[in-house]
Fold this sequence. Notes:
Layout: H1 4-12, H2 36-66, H3 70-82, H4 89-96, H5 100-112, E1 116-120, E2 128-132, H6 134-155, H7 160-178
Antiparallel strand pairs: 1-2
Helix pairs in contact: 4-5
Amino acid sequence: MKTARDIERSESAPVRPAVRSTVDLAGYWYEADLAEARARSRAVLEALRLYRAAEMAMRRRTRESMAMGENELLVLRYLIRKGDALVRPVELATYLGVSTASMTALLDRLEKSGHITRVANPEDRRSIFVRATAVTEEEVRGTLGEMHERMYAAVEGMTAAQADAVIGFLTRMSAAVDGVAVEAR
């Protein structure tokens, strides 16, 4: 039997809306535990999974439109971010986690297609620097520029608290993913 105190508590307690999402809560990988906090967590993880799938598809379309592989596009974006800084091939190999031989082959393809130039090191004739060409910068910015504008538009209205929450979430997710160690078989 409810007491007056129980009734008062239930009437003054805030009503929590059910967790609603455009994401199917019986989604991929996650158990069907529909406790409120668990359902909310699952909805967030499912939304993140859907975002990652959309991003991967966008990257694939970008690579196809530029007739490049993932590593070629990563190298070009790296060089463009560096601007006029002098970049050695070994720095790029380290960035991608590939051998120097693989990097040489990749740079050969990019040079042949007119996306990069190799510049002799004036202090050491045995080494070179790599730069993106001006045409490449225009092509990459033209291809990715619209996507970046759309991404900015998606976050521009966020409050500082919302931005802090998203940044905190993504930082924790990055740490969680980076913490996964895969042992060699």
